[in-house]
Amino acid sequence: MTYKKMILFIIIFLIAIGLQTTHSAKPAFAFTEQVIQQGAAGEDVIELQARLQYLGYYNGDIDGVFGWGTYWALRNFQYEFGMEIDGLAGAETKEKLASASEYDRNFVMSQINQGTEFTHYGGVDQSKQSESKPDNNKNTANNNTTNDNANAAEPTAVNVPQGYSQNDIQLMANAVNGEARGEQYVGMVAVAAVILNRVESPSFPNSVSGVIFEPRAFTAVADGQIWLTPGETSKEAVLDAINGWDPSGNAIYYFNPNTATSDWIWSRPQIKKIGKHIFAK
Amino acid sequence: MGRWILIGILTLGIAGVGFWGYQEHQEKNAVLIQAENNYQRAFHELSYHMDLMHDKIGTALAMNSREQLSPQMVEIWRLTSEATSNVGQLPLTLMPFNKTEEFLSNIGEFTYRTAVRDLQENPLNDKEVKTLQNLYEQSGDLKDELRNVQHTVLDENLRWMDVQLALATQDEQADNTIVDGFKTVEKKVEGFAESNVDSALTGTSAEEHEYRNLNGEKINKEKATKRGQELLQVKNTDNLTVTDSGKGADVPVYSISYQNGNKHGYLDLTKQGGHPLTLLVNREVQEQKISLNEGLEKAKGYLKQYDFEDMDVFTSNQFDNIGVYSFLYNQNGVRIYSDAIELKVALDNGDLLGMTARNYFMNHKERDIPEPELSIEEAKEKVNPDVQINEEYMAVIDNDVGDEVLVYEFLGVLDNETYRIFINAMDGTEEKVEKLDGTEINFASVSQGRA
Fold first, then answer.
1. What pLDDT was estimated at residue B18?
2. Which CATH number is B376-436's, of 1.10.357, 3.40.1010, 3.30.70, 3.10.450?
3. Interface predicted TM-score (ipTM)
4. Which of B39, B249, B442 sits opposite A249 (nearest CB)?
5. For residue B444, which residues of chain A lie inside 8 Å, CB to CB?
6. Where does A166-280 sit in CATH, by number?
7. pTM
8. Three-class SS string for chain A?
């Protein structure tokens, strides 16, 4: 009897210890396992920025994209806490950060979902950190969605290639979609690359919009097909071209040999054929 | 009675349709006139700017004082840019008019280079004065031709909308006065190009030159197929199509492509040595499983696997579930900006989705890097004192004129913005300052949030 009791007692004791240790070993952060580095986007970055802001290192928007502001903030934090300064949020950095700061996830997520401007500084009242919207109707209308999404939020910023805006990318995606819809992916990247090669070329306008809207340059612009809604693939193709991919082999012209009306275009030195288009210098 | 009502309704109907048709016609005319006016404005401005430019080049020749010459050059440079923009607004694209645009761009390049130079210390040399004289004559010819076309246009009330039509339907092209006029202009400029060969006017192809770094034996088609199979990671060669490049290609390549369901791959291999210039694989990328950081390790692995040595990561960015990395060649601690390679890694399983090494194969070589004449401290003094410098590197970059120069590279912060600043390590010139952004508010998500 007592023997059984003893065993039971020991088991309970062990479980209690187990619970205790697992509890204390688990740091109070929601970070995933990943090493967060510059250029990353997602919820981990939101938490990173919020925690850095809590400690006063980060003064930018909590937008979920690891840009330069976050990079310098993280490096300052690593410097102040005597860690190796590498600008990477690895296991040690995340742990130190979590023990030094607090993170009110629900507050941050709901703010992001409501689209309000907010901050997450430590020791400041939350109501002062959020610019609440003047029209209450909107807030109540949003309430449902807010509650649904309270446990997740998308970053409110995106990475864009240096010197380009999402709108430039969208415009190019429209042109690529109008010109090369139905081509293979690489054919779309090549068309996007031709637009960029023209921007670089001395014989064409010096901006993306100038090149696209140059009269008679693209049939898709002339017949209005440029205003069809482009698919995600066109956008991806444009990003690839901007990031340096040029399957066209540095072409500045292309044409469809079945429909080309101009003799002159045939006189250009041809580089290669991708799908229906012949690319030329 | 019923008949009269019917007649009444029909009459009303016809009158209505007539009125509607008339309105449509009016609107169409209004739109056409708008478009025509835009063309006319671009055209007349072009002639005006050419004329003005010719004058300015003339006065520049006569100028003796160096203080005035620089602003004059800037003025000419500005006019070339205006004129180029005017040409870009005319419906001439499918007509060979690019020699003229190139001519304009060359004048721009030349005047820019002289304008930014310290003419006090470094006055125009004989060759450059000669070039300027040539430009004066040539722009004069060009101006006359354009003024001539302009006169005909005004005299005969010619419309650019007709040019548009004439260019669209090839047959009538022979008759169109404007088109002919522009062809004459273009012919003239073609002649200039030859007489300018020996002058200080260089083409703007600073970054484009032949491929310098293609070693190895020429490979044949079979070998290319095999190499393509490895690089694209395809099991059987049946799905692979290999094609030769045409005579317009900068460097002869084999283009290898394959299609397998939704997955599609494309690869350009140089015939000389079988080096991969461009690789692209397109497929659905699933949910993110690996981090951007792990993707970077993968990317480094791929570089090693394809025998690129001493490559340092330069930027990393996540676009949806794809990691895009760029690498720079590092020669004894100096980053060489022109020897760049970009890689794309799928963040679902770490597969290589793309690689582009055109810059690397075009520029890469072992360089003779001189000892810097400025110490890093001296270079820092050349940086705006308000910028807080956080990181420093040695680098080789292409400067404004397209020469490779050794620089100190500083990453610094000013008012929450990050800047990349290049200071020439030999003479302390501030070669380039770039503001780094790379992120932007997601307008799509913002508007959704507010809806």
1. 93
2. 3.10.450
3. 0.78
4. B249
5. 166
6. 1.10.10.2520
7. 0.78
8. CHHHHHHHHHHHHHHHHHHHHHHHHCCCCCCCCCCECCCCECHHHHHHHHHHHHCCCCCCCCCCECCHHHHHHHHHHHHHCCCCCCCCECHHHHHHHHHHCCCCHHHHHHHHHHCCCECCCCCCCHHHHECCCCCHHHHHHHHHHHHHHCCCCCCCEEECCCCCCHHHHHHHHHHHHHHHCCCCHHHHHHHHHHHHHHHHCCCCCCCHHHHHCCCCCCHHHHCCHHHCCCCHHHHHHHHHHHCCCCCCCCCCEEECCCCCCCHHHHCCCEEEEECCEEEEC
